[in-house]
Amino acid sequence: AKEKGRNDFQIFNSDMKSVSINRLRLENELRRALVNEEFVLYYQPQVDIGSGRIVGVEALIRWNHPDKGMVMPNHFIPLAEESGLIVPIGEWVLRAACKQNKTWQSEGYAPIPISVNLSMRQFFQHNLKGKISHVLEQTELDPRYLELEITESMTMDVDHAIQSLLELKELGVNVSIDDFGTGYSSLYYLKKFPIDKLKIDRSFVRDIMVDPNDAAIVATIIAMTHHLNLKVIAEGVETEDQLKFLYQNRCNEVQGYWFSPPVDRLELEHMLRHGISV
Ligand code: C2E
Ligand code: CA
Ligand code: CA
Ligand code: CA
């Protein structure tokens, strides 16, 4: 029994070691990825529910790893957040997204806003306004064609969030609240935040046809956004029934696999030229 106990301990110990070695390796690889520009942006169209037109795109990061191929954000964003690497990675995303949007405009595509996800660390970063304004100047993108997505958890410190949001508004960019409904935003404070749009989280959208509670929540969020003069977009729309429900409940915009998954630049450009065929 004594023998076994020691082995268990050693197994546990070496597991722990390999976990931290893996983390360290991943962190170093992320640093290298930044230097070698291994990150790429994919783009998911945001569609006007009445006209079916593409009225925006969300930029979503991918890691084109030399050995592993295309790595999805849930495999590296959490560690990037913990290690602080999300700040330089987020800056790369912001610059790349603004640059690409400016290029599309120069090429004659109808101007649409590009949405960029901001991490908590970026949002509470000192001089966020200065950094974003610098990128906008460098890329010559008109600020109204940039939308920043923050999550509800970033609005928990209400005063700080209002202050940061006011600074972003001074720049002329748009702000939306991502994954809306999954956090604890007080509806009372919602009207005090200088924001433009709510993005209804896909966990509610997923079950609107099967769960009357989710249907009620989605309908209520949409009605509320109209009262507060906010725009509203539903995420994760995968079926025609969900789309119909959202249309009947006067949702403005939709995003999801029903229209298109996130795609690379060329595929997105094809959709911008020819529209989306579902
Ligand atoms: P998110 O911001 O909520 O992005 C939406 C995610 O839902 C994307 O996953 C997208 O591919 C997926 N999605 C879109 N439509 C559908 C649908 O109809 N059904 C289903 N099942 N999924 C759908 P992705 O690209 O893997 O990104 C995951 C998360 O990683 C993002 O969630 C965001 O939190 C984070 N992320 C991605 N890019 C960035 C970035 O540049 N910066 C930061 N800070 N986070 C990022
Ligand atoms: Ca998002
Ligand atoms: Ca989301
Ligand atoms: Ca999310």
Automatic annotation (TrEMBL):
Residues of the full protein shown: 336 to 613 of 619
Protein name (record): EAL domain-containing protein
Species assigned in the record: Paenibacillus allorhizoplanae
EAL domain: residues covered: 23-276
Superkingdom of origin: Bacteria
